[in-house]
Amino acid sequence: MTGVVIAGGGPVGLMLACELGLAGVDTVVLERLERPSGESRALGLHSRTVEVLHQRGLLDRVGNQVPVWPKGHFAGLRKVDMTKLDAEHSYALMVPQSRTEEILHERALELGVDIRRGHRLVSLEQGPDGVTVGVEGPDGAYRLDGRYLAGCDGGASTVRKLAGVPFPGTASTVNALLGDVQLIGEQPAGRELLRLEGGLFGLIPLGEGLYRVVAVEFDAEPVPRDVPVTTEELAAAAKRVSGLDLTIGEARWMSRFGNATRLVERYRTGSVLLAGDAAHVHFPAGGQGLNTGIQDALNLGWKLAGTLNGWAPDGLLDSYEAERRPVAKRVCMNTRAQLAMMHPAPEIDPLRELFSELMDLDQVNRYIGEMITGLDIRYPMGGEDGAAEPSHALVGRRMPPLPLLTPDGRVNALELLAAGRGLLIDLADALPAAWADGRTDRLTRLTATLADPAKAPGTAALLVRPDGYVAWACAEPGGTEGLAEALDRWFGAASS
């Protein structure tokens, strides 16, 4: 029996596969496409996702890492100052989704993941010991048993439908097209998403004469998603929205999208779990879709692995929904707010003007920037129910990129997470050594000093989960109040 079957070999499914592979979990990825499509609906990685690649040792594989978009967008207002965000990677990287998939595919193979292209999940049955899925592959149909099934198969998720998970929300009210195409004749100056009288229009240069053309018409009957887009249709929509006469040559790919906003009622149904667009869909405002999905996979991976490897405490796997569903709900909210402010109706103009003024305030600018990048996420940890201030400023947040001085030299604490294990970092050399006993298979204990104490003021020790979030911290050297409970909650009982 396979440990985890993953339906969907896009960035979310592959990220989850990498996380499981790190922990030695037997994993099979079923991807219906026989070969990569080369399509890149998403073009950028936000700072939090860049940080995730860094912590797993994958950032160097991206290639050219010139930071882009120092000014981010919110509702089409290019005012979000990414450079003021409190993060090591306070920028976005323009990395096509196809390249992100290549990196994660390569890494998953290195970790021994079984990736089956041209294999489509068509049925599932749940039993007391896991799931049995029916698969159609190049050599015919077969059945595959797994302890768990992860649906990472997009907004039209087969897994979600077969599991009977409700997907409530709102239907699309816009007709939207995009295409990566060659433009013939005079090439207009590159633009980003503009709010015009006819709707939204984007013309983004991708290099080598290729442009991404985006046209969004409001209050229009959407054309069904399965109707192929033609270059004539894309040019006509661009004309209606922008007034520009574009002569489109070769099209690398074209697609439809909309503003349907939906969120599953539950992320787990028995042995079936959902992640990425299979769990939440929304208008692609602010480039949050892929990035939210990657974070889903990061959160779910180590919890599934701990469950399968036998050390996870009761409730660990259920904390996936408890932590990630509120995040997705907030993304759905802010993308709907952005689209409302991008409507071309004149009565929206005063609202945009007022919001633009508010974004000139540093506190508002930072608030918006942290929201769309995921830097504002704070998970409740144990007794931290959100009703009161956490016991330490770092608890529930991502561990900062702490510069540590260790017996082996200087290291960025983020890089210590590359193996997918937790960390117990003693910055005052005052914790009894026995605190990590019995959990060395899932937790690394480290004594170090901060090369820059300003990076974590008032911190003598901290416990970090495999996904990089701080589960416990204390200010007093040798302080251990709450540590035993945090260890049991996130790393299970110590082995005898």
Automatic annotation (TrEMBL):
Out of the domains of life, which is the source?
Bacteria
Cofactor needs: FAD
Q: Which UniProt keywords apply?
A: FAD, Flavoprotein
UniProt keyword Flavoprotein present: yes
The UniProt entry, under Gene3D superfamilies, shows:
3.30.70.2450, 3.40.30.120, FAD/NAD(P)-binding domain (3.50.50.60)
Ranges for domain FAD-binding: 2-334
InterPro entries reported in the protein's UniProt record? FAD-bd, FAD/NAD-bd_sf, RIFMO-like
Entry's Pfam families? FAD_binding_3, Rng_hyd_C
Q: Which GO molecular function terms does the record list?
A: FAD binding; oxidoreductase activity, acting on paired donors, with incorporation or reduction of molecular oxygen, NAD(P)H as one donor, and incorporation of one atom of oxygen
Q: PANTHER family of this UniProt entry?
A: BINDING MONOOXYGENASE, PUTATIVE (JCVI)-RELATED (PTHR43004:SF19), TRK SYSTEM POTASSIUM UPTAKE PROTEIN (PTHR43004)
Name this polypeptide is given: FAD-dependent oxidoreductase
Query: What is the scientific name of the source organism?
Result: Kitasatospora phosalacinea
> What is this organism's lineage?
Bacteria, Bacillati, Actinomycetota, Actinomycetes, Kitasatosporales
